[in-house]
Every structure is written in structure tokens, then in C-alpha cells.
# Entry
Amino acid sequence: MVSANKEMAVYCFDTLLAHYNGEDAPPPAFEDGEHPLFVTWKKVVNGGEPRLRGCIGTLEARCLTTGFRDYALTSALRDRRFPPIQAKELPSLECTVSVLTDYETANNYLDWEIGKHGIIIEFTDPGYNMRRSATYLPEIAAHEGWTKVEAIESLMRKAGYNGIITEPLRESINLTRYQSTIFTMPYSDYISYIKATRGAAPSFAGAKLNH
# Structure
């Protein structure tokens, strides 16, 4: 089974840096395969808790090489919840790569474990008679300190539902649970890795980047 690893995070940093430099990223150093995946960027400000700057991925299996290349940029530049990440933010960034596995259909909306499972919900919005869906990665509910019900209700809002949340509506949810492997790399570790493996710090617009 393919697990998230440092080479995947390095490739995401390489891809973002190459975008700012207007060049192609070096080829990745991990084995290719096909899996659902996510790329998450967070920014550390004044030594505090890392804050989300972008998180986008796919629940469908994608070629890992093109998937991480595409979603490294999409999550950094086109997450509509945030302004695009600017080059000057690079030294403050950390990248988390997620490879999703073990999709299972749950028996009900509570049939999953906080901290173990990511969840995908699908339900019909009774006000508009339309299907809505959304997902949270496995680490989200635990990080937020939510109960299962709180996580479900937050996810329903994320899906765009603005009406009253009732127990019958929660019971109508089709829930798919999944697991993931993750690897998180701060920018400083990226620089150290590049120096160790390529002999020099990466260049940005002609200048060497150091943390």
C-alpha cells in the first residue's frame, strides 16, 4: 500500500516554487500509483498554531504524480476560502500530503471513529430538493475537539445546507468513511532536504532560499 511520505511533500513544495519561478518542477522521487489524495497548506505566524491557507484534493483515484502536482497548486492558489498564497509566504508554510484508503459504506451517520476515519456525507436538502455532499479528512474532527454530531452538523454546513438540522435529516445521510496516511513537512525541513539531496538550497527568482 502506498503511504504519504516526505518525497510527496517535497514535490508539492517543488511544484509551488517552480510556479513562482515560471519553470518546471524537478521530477518526483516517489513511486507513482493511483489513489485519492489531498494537499493542505498551513501558515505559521509568529510561532503560533499553524493556520489553514488552502486544502483541496480529490476523492477519486488520481495518478499520484499529476495529482500532487495539480492539487499543490490548486490548494495554494485556488481555494476560494482564502486569497492565493504569495511567494513571500513560502518560509512560513508547511505542507501536509494525504493519501486516502479503505473506503467503506457506514451503517449510519455515527458509524465512524473520530481520529481514525475521514467522512464523506451525502444528503438531500429538503428546502431545495437537491443533493449536497462534503468531506472532512480524518484529522479534522479530533483537531477541532468535536463530537460526532458536531462534526456531522459542521460538515452539513460546509456542504451548503443552511436550514434547521433535525435528527431525521441526520439519519437520512449516506456516510462513507475512509482512512488516510499523512505526512507534514515545514518549509525549514524542505530546505534541509533539498540541501542534503541536491547539494544546494533551491533558488527563487535567482536568489537562494534559506530559512
About this structure: The first strand starts at residue 34 and ends at 43.
